[in-house]
Structures are given as C-alpha cells and as structure tokens.
Amino acid sequence: MAEKGKVCVTGAGGYVASWVVKLLLSKGYIVHGTVREPSDEKYSHLKKLEKASENLKLFKADLLEYNTLCSAIAGCDGVFHVASPVPPTTVVPNPEVELMEPAVKGTLNVLKACTEAKVKRVVVVSSGYAVMRNPRWPKGKVKDETCWSDKEYCRTTENWYCLSKTEAETEALEYAKKSGLDVVRVCPTLVLGPILQSTINASSLVLIKLLKEGYESLENKHRMIVDARDVAEALLLAYEQPEAEGRYICTAHMIKMQDLVENLRSIYPYYNYPKNFTEGEETENLSSEKLQRLGWNYRPLEETLVDSIKSYKEAGILD
Ligand SMILES: NC(=O)c1ccc[n+]([C@@H]2O[C@H](COP(=O)([O-])OP(=O)(O)OC[C@H]3O[C@@H](n4cnc5c(N)ncnc54)[C@H](OP(=O)(O)O)[C@@H]3O)[C@@H](O)[C@H]2O)c1
After folding, report:
1. 165 included as an active-site residue
2. Segments forming the whole domain that contains residue 54
3. NAD-dependent epimerase/dehydratase domain: which residues (predicted)?
C-alpha cells in the first residue's frame, strides 16, 4: 500500500485515539502518537497494533507543555487532536486545573504547534456535550451543528466536562478564523464499542455499570450512542475529504436507558441490571446528517454492544 503521509494523534493511548491510531496504520499512514509516559504499561496495546513496529512512533508530550507538542507534530501533514480529560464522574473537585486548562489551553497549544509546523489540516475531537446543553433551543427541534451548549448554563449546573468541551471547541473555532489554519471539528455523543486498551475509560464505564452495578433505580433518559470504530472512520473522513469543513455531529443511535437494558437482557440475561427506572428527561435528539452527507455510515447498535461486552470479558473486566 502506498504511504499516505505523516500524521500526529494526541493522547494516542486513550480509548477513542487507540482506534484512530489503528485505523490510520491500517490505511498506510505513518503515525506520531503523543502519550504522557511512553514507558507506561497502559500503552502496550499500541505497540501490538498491525504495522505499529514500522509506522508508529510514540512521543512523550503533555498538552500543557507546548514544546513537547511541537516535537511530536513537526513534519506532520495532519493532526488528530483527541486528548482531553474525560472524568469518570460529574464530581470534579478542581475543574479549572483538572478539566478546563488541559482542554482549552491544551487545544490552543496543539493548534499553535500545528501553525508552526505548517500542518495542512487539524481534526479536533469535540463532543456532543458541546452541542446539546442549550435551554434556549426550541423544544422538540432536532439539534444540528448550529446548536451550541450554553456556557453559563454549564457553569451554573456545574457540568464542568460539558463546559470544558464547549470552551475548547469555541476557542478552536476562533483560532481557525484568526490564523487561517484548516480546522475541522467532530462532536461524538456517548462512545461505546470494544476497548483496545486494558484500562476502563469513562464512557465504557457507563455500559459496564449498567451490567454490574444493580442500581435500585435509574433515570430512564435518552442516550445517544456511537461506536468508537465509527468515530475513528468519521475523523478519517473529516481529515481526508477535501470538502470537509466546520463542525460535524457524530452520533448513531438514540435509545432510552430502559430499552437499552432490555436489549442487553435479551442477549445476556444473567447480569446485575438496574431494578427500576424513573421518568427520564427531555429527548436529546442530535442529527448526523451533515456527516452522512460526507460519506459516513454506522454499524447496528447490537454489534456495538456485543463487541463491547466481548472485549470487557477479554480484558478481565467482566465475567
Ligand atoms: N468517550 C466518549 O463517550 C466521548 C464522547 C465525545 C467526545 N469524546 C472525546 O474524545 C476524546 C477522547 O476521549 P476518550 O473517551 O478516548 O477518553 P480517554 O480514554 O480517557 O482518553 C483521554 C486522553 O486524553 C489524554 N490527556 C488528558 N489530559 C492530558 C494532558 N494534560 N496531556 C496529554 N494528554 C492528556 C489522556 O492521556 P493519558 O493516557 O496520559 O491519561 C488520554 O489519552 C476526548 O477529547 C473526549 O472529550 C469522548
């Protein structure tokens, strides 16, 4: 296969990023992956990916250390900025330091390093949470790329992760406008699907807890789910398609928690599922029409669930 050029993936050892690295290697790219501690065992899965020994190089870099990012990005045609803290719970003792700084300042550091290295295109991973928390959006209207989460609303409801992603994406948009750097932003909703890494990331924990926790009662809210492998494909499309621009919502299936549990129970009757459900909040209906027009497609939900559970078992996380 012809070589596709050199690209950098930030936070390469994370859940979503590992799938991005795997996809890029399979397509013939040379990949520079940034990790915070290259010798850490938690990145060992990356070295086992097909073509990793020839085409993957890991760089020690922190989002808050500009020079470390410059070394990883130098010589790259493109960058996938995936790294950003994703807390496992909504309780974040010091949101400014734990979330806001690495998300916002980290994104700006990456973008500045891209300008310096004359990168042709940057794909920034934002989030459905940068889209959906907007109390002024007309009730019942499907949310598209023109909808932005309200930062004041995120602040007053102490939704710090949502605030960090909204602020980071806003800054990325502003930076692109000012500098002329080609930045495409992709906003995935809840990402599930098999894990490549050996540790549990925050979104996989949502599914693992549904199977193991035995909640007395759970809110029957809507969740919007997308498979990590389909997110990786979306990011590649956003990078490779010349016409890609602006923002893309990346979501596949909208399902109520209770229906999700019933789907799981029909395949795996023996897990410790929630016992009761309470009435859920208003629908979070987001549309990925724009991404589909770019050529994106997604797999059925059942495949995502079955492959996720298989991978948790293989990792020894689930019996
Ligand atoms: N999973 C979802 O449901 C979901 C949905 C929408 C958007 N996203 C976005 O997708 C991206 C990846 O998330 P994920 O689910 O794959 O989570 P993850 O597995 O926790 O990955 C987060 C990555 O960010 C890196 N990171 C955090 N702070 C850093 C810092 N200061 N310097 C360098 N790297 C840092 C982590 O590096 P270490 O390995 O060193 O800790 C890790 O690789 C994030 O931007 C997230 O907001 C995720």
Report:
1. yes
2. 6-192+225-251+283-298
3. 7-245
